[in-house]
Amino acid sequence: MTGPSTLNRAARLLALITPRASADAVLRRELSPRRDLPPGERRDIAHAVAAYFRWRRWLDEREPPQRQLEAALAWQRRFAAAPDAFKPETLAARAVPDWIAAAMDTVPVDWLRHLQREPVLWIRARKKFVAALPRTLGDLAPAQVTGLVESGPGSAPPATTAFRYTGPHDLFLTPAFQEGQFEIQDLASQLVGHACAPRPGETWWDTCAGEGGKTLHLADLMDNQGLIWASDRSARRLSLLKQRAARAQVFNYRAVSWDGGPRPPTKTRFDGVLIDAPCSGVGTWHRHPDARWTTSPADVYELAAIQRQLLDHAAGSLKPGGRLVYAVCTLTRAETTAVADGFAAAHPEFKPAAVFPRVPSESLEASREAQIPGLRTPTSVTLWPNEIHANGMFIAAWWKR
Question: What is the C-alpha to C-alpha distance for residues 279 and 283, in angstroms, rounded to an integer?
Fold first, then answer.
């Protein structure tokens, strides 16, 4: 049972969480400096806060926050013991906001149940540390994604560097992390890197690089050869990218500012462009349960317009034969298939490409045109959280004629 002091601290943090200050940001700001709190208590506080937002519609708002937190943790234990006892109609009515049913093509019951589970912690090992890292860190299980994408002759399964961490340690404090042997990165985000399938020596543009998670993955896939332009509108995020790149010993990139407008940050023509666009984040609701109650339909449509604009503005920077990858960690129709279909209709110079190329090292022309009968090579995919035990993600790919 969680003690009164932990519940009191969690209750104080609840008061600081607003639509403009996410739970994740508040927890990081308030708990990271608290070295006087044991790591176990910091985890318990974060666990209680997440449970509150996960079970919010099961709670009595008239109760004090400490009592609500205690009740939320009880609901979490009850669910962990018997998840199938929760009826689909109850989950549909309470686990998500009312507007989500109209915003998605389908709302699977398995997804609703997955939203109420504790999230999985994924890491990405740098290629040269894949063999040693399980012994170094311990408590690692390799990702099982072979059934996600069928591979052709000679191809490697995607995400062979992805591991699930089940141990008790703060990974940021481990020597292996400080030495840049791995990154904390969700499996779905890692699969976006494999969808890009960059080759050593190519030139890529990560248009919405943020703090650089996918930039670092692309660099590792390219063996630190070639060049990656990493752009973002936030100078703070680009500064963090530089810190992460130094720790990971990534040097084949340039960090530049870009606001998403019609003028790209360079006149370079790229072999590949990744648009990991800002989105409503519906695919991350199991990891960020407070976002369920702050995201609105208006946000979805505003972001869909931005996503389409980013595609239109970045597509012209591809070389003929270049690869364009669009990814969003959301599941709404407006931000996924609607954006992809609208872009395809407006840009006949782009042809749909397999999201996961059969053989990453084969020639681009061969991977676009040659098809092996019976192989599943979709040109867009939806990665459901309940199927991969990670964030939800939509990915679409094209090549430029």
Answer: 10
